[in-house]
Design brief:
Elements (H helix, E strand, L loop, with lengths): L1 E2 L4 H5 L11 E2 L2 E7 L7 H30 L1 H4 L14 E4 L1 H4 L5 E4 L5 E3 L16 H6 L9 H11 L8 E5 L8 H5 L2 E9 L4 E9 L2
Antiparallel strand pairs: 1-3, 2-3, 3-9, 4-7, 5-6, 7-8, 8-9
Length: 210
């Protein structure tokens, strides 16, 4: 399993976040992967997670080294490399139609806050838990709020052959400190998707707080 470094999808979403080191839309961090081995269901999805988190861990080590060189040991020692245990991640299969559900905006208040015709709404009961994919993309913690048409266009670019036959898994988020920020407030999500029409995996991560 290996990550795809250059792809038309990454070029498309630069309009939402131009930083070339990251691939975000809203709070969703996208990772595209390929595998030379045949698809083996949930095991292949777990291997996709492993590939993503191995790289994230390597990046965290490099970041710590860079901070040590620029700011000294005291600052660098306040940071620690990413901790994760993929074997503890628990998967649950999702219906693609439910996962890619997109609500409509029914009204917008004078502050620009959007209200949706959706059953799910952020409240104290779901604080720090998994948020819907549409919410993670359309309602980031800070900055630009995206519209339903953005949600649809991003997914059309990511899955040009449609979403009905995708294999989608949602994973627990108690196996890595990557998700600590999300557990604190906004929400923490880990999804993996296999597109058999393109033999491509997509891992989506969400972890944000204020």
């Amino acid at each position: 399993m290996y990550e795809i470094k250059n792809n038309a999808f990454y070029d498309y979403i630069k309009q939402y976040d131009p930083d070339p080191e990251y691939h975000f839309v809203g709070e969703v961090d996208y990772h595209l992967l390929k595998d030379d081995k045949p698809y083996e269901g949930v095991q292949s999805h777990r291997e996709a997670l492993t590939a993503v988190f191995d790289r994230l861990a390597e990046n965290s080590i490099e970041d710590q080294k860079s901070i040590r060189e620029r700011c000294g040991d005291d600052i660098a020692d306040q940071l620690s490399p990413l901790v994760y245990d993929i074997d503890k991640a628990r998967p649950a299969a999702l219906n693609p139609k439910d996962f890619f559900y997109c609500p409509n905006i029914v009204k917008t208040d004078y502050n620009g806050n959007a209200f949706y015709d959706a059953e799910w709404k952020p409240n104290d009961d779901n604080c720090g838990t998994t948020v819907p994919y549409w919410y993670a993309l359309m309602e980031p913690v800070h900055g630009r709020n995206n519209k339903p048409e953005d949600f649809k266009k991003v997914n059309e670019s990511l899955f040009p052959n449609g979403t009905d036959t995708l294999d989608v898994y949602e994973w627990s988020t108690d196996w890595s400190d990557f998700f600590d920020d999300g557990h604190e407030w906004y929400g923490a999500c880990c999804w993996s998707i296999y597109d058999k029409s393109m033999n491509r995996y997509v891992v989506m991560l969400v972890s944000a707080t204020d």
